[in-house]
Write a structure and sequence with these properties.
CATH class of the largest domain: Alpha Beta
CATH topology of the largest domain: FAD/NAD(P)-binding domain
Number of helices: 7
Shape: elongated
Strand content: 25-35%
Number of strands: 19
Largest sheet: 7 strands, mixed
Bound molecules: flavin-adenine dinucleotide, NADP nicotinamide-adenine-dinucleotide phosphate
Order of helices and strands: EHEEEHEEEEEHEHEHEHEEEEEEEH
Radius of gyration: 22 Å
Length: 325
């Protein structure tokens, strides 16, 4: 028979949002269970330097920050589960969720902090070359391209940071961006423009990731200039797609209200979703700020909102019991 874990507060996701909710939830006596998902620690585990999380004078490392957050959550009483939720039943409380392991989790309240996942260009050649020269994480895979020419696709903070990071391994980095200006923060743009080993291809889209060699690997990227239509080849052995992320909400379609981009809808100024007792925090409900600090902030809000809901539910239950006596 499948194991069942029951808790007052069930949290999905172990990024800054989920772990902050866990810290507040545990300290409020809700003994939270955190189902970590396939990426324990969330997106920050795929990066290196974090310079904008308050409290640290020195530059800190993303994976280290997430280890510290998890340790703090466990220290105050949260329980971590190495599992991913594959099925949810939210029509009645306690909510019932099923993990990939077959384990059943029930929670009087549910906090959804499933974050976001990397977007891909959607080209057949990209799919074919994933893991053979095409990646969505320079900090994870950049090391494999030591001394080789590489390219990054995108124009946001992630793309610029990945291009800068890759200069640790490569003396020849090309940033391929579809427009003539970047979306990334000015300070990152300045570092990018000043770097002698990075060149930028403006108004340029990827046409094909070109395979070759034995064993098969990436030998180049055919790109198209969006203004002239001209196609040319960039000779690289590594291509890093950094074009943003999509919210991890597939699981909740038909269960909680989502907006047209797939983000969980919350009541403005709160983390309350369309289902009473279900709360959403972090990148899964935020398409504007998408920062570790805002994810942590809304994680705190979710735990406080959940605590208030449970206190009111307990109060009503006590009153109903007294009235029935
Ligand atoms: P995430 O960090 O995305 O975590 C989501 C969690 O949900 C994961 O643990 C995952 O395993 C879990 N999950 C997903 N599906 C399930 C499921 N079905 N069941 C159970 N669990 C599930 N922000 C900054 O402030 N500063 C930076 O320097 C910075 N650098 C960044 C660098 C990179 C390369 C990237 C990609 C992002 C960066 N960000 C940065 C943004 C920041 O990482 C995110 O805003 C933040 O991680 C969002 O936190 P989150 O908890 O909402 O979600
Ligand atoms: P993003 O800001 O959404 O940028 C995505 C980039 O990819 C954009 O430049 C976009 O081009 C391009 N793009 C999207 N779809 C494309 C396609 N099909 N083909 C080609 N290019 C495409 O995503 P992000 O850079 O991953 O950042 C996500 C969030 O995390 C942001 O809020 C960011 O601030 C945050 N973050 C913060 C830090 C930091 O604070 N240091 C670091 C990393 C990420 P257009 O510009 O033309 O739309």
């Amino acid at each position: 028979m499948a194991a069942t874990h029951s808790t007052r507060m069930l949290i999905l996701g172990s990024g800054p949002a989920g772990l902050s909710a866990a810290i507040y939830g545990a300290r409020a006596g809700m003994a939270p269970i955190v189902v970590q998902g396939i990426q324990p620690g969330g997106q920050l585990t795929t990066t290196t330097d974090v310079e904008n999380y308050p409290g640290f004078r020195e530059v800190i490392q993303g994976p280290w920050l997430m280890e510290e957050m998890q340790a703090q959550a466990e220290h105050v009483g949260a329980r971590m589960m190495w599992d991913s939720i594959v099925e949810v039943e939210l029509s009645q409380r306690p909510f019932r969720l099923i993990g990939d392991s077959g384990t059943i989790y029930t929670g009087d309240v549910l906090v959804i902090a499933t974050g976001a996942q990397a977007k891909w260009l959607g080209l057949p050649s990209e799919e074919h070359m994933k893991g053979k020269g095409v990646s969505a994480c320079a900090t994870c895979d950049g090391f494999f391209y030591r001394g080789k020419k590489v390219a990054v696709i995108g124009g946001g903070n992630t793309a610029v940071e990945e291009a800068l990071y890759l200069t640790n391994h490569s003396h020849d980095v090309t940033l391929i961006h579809r427009r003539d200006s970047l979306r990334a923060e000015k300070i990152l743009q300045e570092r990018l423009f000043a770097h002698p080993n990075i060149k930028i291809l403006w108004n340029t889209e990827v046409d094909t990731f070109v395979a070759g060699g034995e064993p098969e690997g990436l030998v180049g990227i055919d790109v198209r200039n969006t203004v002239t239509g001209e196609v040319s080849r960039v000779d690289v052995e590594g291509g890093f797609v950094a074009i943003g992320h999509s919210p991890a909400t597939e699981l909740f379609k038909g269960h909680v209200e989502l907006d047209s981009d797939g983000y969980i809808t919350v009541e403005p100024g709160t983390t309350r979703t369309s289902v009473p007792g279900v709360y959403a925090c972090g990148d899964v409900m935020d398409k504007v700020y998408r920062q570790a600090i805002t994810a942590a902030g809304t994680g705190c809000m979710a735990a406080l909102d959940a605590e208030k809901f449970l206190a009111e539910a307990d109060f009503e239950a006590t009153n109903a019991a007294v009235a029935a006596e």
